[in-house]
């Protein structure tokens, strides 16, 4: 985790149930090609539903389409971590 000199995390990412990821703090957004995306502010909401017209940013479309996702990470059936097909074994 990146930290500032004060011991605080440089950026904080908060998941919201059925909504976006809220990113606060000192962060850099990049495209898959490595180009920097100017967020225009210090706090941004990133789309999780995939339907936003302004991706990677959230435009609230998740409410209109009934997007559902928990605020907590999915730990899988054994509670140990990511259990999607092809994910590395967390053991």
From TrEMBL:
It comes from the Bacteria. Residues 71-91 have a biased composition (Basic and acidic residues). Residues 31-68 form the Iron-binding zinc finger CDGSH type domain. Pfam families: zf-CDGSH. Residues 68-91 are annotated as: Disordered. InterPro entries: FeS-contain_CDGSH-typ (IPR018967), MitoNEET_CISD (IPR042216). Keywords: 2Fe-2S, Iron, Iron-sulfur, Metal-binding. This is CDGSH iron-sulfur domain-containing protein.
